[in-house]
Specification:
The complex is a heterodimer of chains A (about 120) and B (about 110). With about 120 residues, chain A is mainly beta. Chain A contains no helices and 11 strands. Chain B is mainly β. In chain B, strands 2, 4, 5, 9, 10 and 11 form a 6-stranded mixed β-sheet that branches. Chain B has a 5-stranded antiparallel β-sheet with strand order 1-3-8-7-6, with no helix packed on it. The radius of gyration of chain B is 13 Å and the shape is globular. Classes of the chains: A mainly beta (about 120), B mainly beta (about 110). The interface of A and B includes residues 41, 91, 99, 105 and 107 of A.
């Protein structure tokens, strides 16, 4: 079946502009995650959704970052007033399990954000 | 100290060699252990999944968990240049959705 998709695949924006990143999870997956990965670094957790609610927003770096999920499906990550340090690959993952369980996550290809 | 430690490498080995990749962790509550493979400019893909202690084999890959030592390993037999990637370990507690990630080890298989 279809995997996790993300759009755009690449985004170049000027410092100070807002950007919106989109994630389409695997159909039927209840959990959705956003991560950030800087060049050569591991995964930095940003936010987690269970259905449409976000019980864990602890990883959002600042109040310029926000995310929402509608219909238990598509999610958007919005970065306002982008800064150069926001440049990274933003990865989305979804998981079929609610709460406990295996916890395995399936990733999209990522959005490469470059702030100039 | 991080909850999950993983040597970033790079680890460079000749084609055909047996590769050993490892992670150590500090939280004894972890029950689920995963290995992900990430090719350059791609998202991570789930490679191996193991519950609790023991071994799991899938083709050329073997995942091993030693909970008493808080140590997990991924072995790759007959390594191929196509195995060149970054390998990330991840783990979670039984009733916790949150995966805790290692930083990833970059593996290079030389033809």
């Amino acid at each position: 079946g279809a995997g996790v998709s993300q759009s755009p695949s690449n985004k170049v924006t000027e410092k100070g502009k807002d950007v919106e990143l989109r994630c389409d999870p695997i159909s039927g997956h209840t959990a959705l995650y956003w991560y950030r990965q800087s060049l050569g670094q591991g995964l930095e957790f940003l936010i987690y959704f269970q259905g449409n609610s976000a019980p864990d927003k602890s990883g959002l770096p600042s109040d310029r970052f926000s995310a929402e999920r509608t219909g238990g499906s598509v999610s958007t990550l919005t970065i306002q007033r982008t800064q150069q340090e926001d440049s990274a690959v933003y990865l989305c993952a979804s998981s079929p399990q609610m709460g406990g369980g295996k916890g395995e996550q399936y990733f999209g290809p990522g959005t490469r954000l470059t702030v100039t | 100290q991080k909850e999950v430690e993983q040597d970033p490498g790079p680890l460079s080995v000749p084609e055909g060699a047996i590769v050993s990749l490892n992670c150590t962790y500090s939280n004894s509550a972890f029950q689920y252990f995963m290995w992900y493979r990430q090719y350059s400019r791609k998202g991570p893909e789930l490679l191996m999944y193991t519950y609790s202690s023991g071994n799991k084999e899938d083709g050329r890959f073997t995942a091993q968990v030693d909970k008493s030592s808080k140590y997990i390993s991924l072995f790759i037999r007959d390594s191929q240049p196509s195995d060149s990637a970054t390998y990330l370990c991840a783990m979670s507690a039984k009733s916790n959705y949150q995966l805790i990630w290692g930083a990833g080890t970059k593996l290079i298989i030389k033809p």
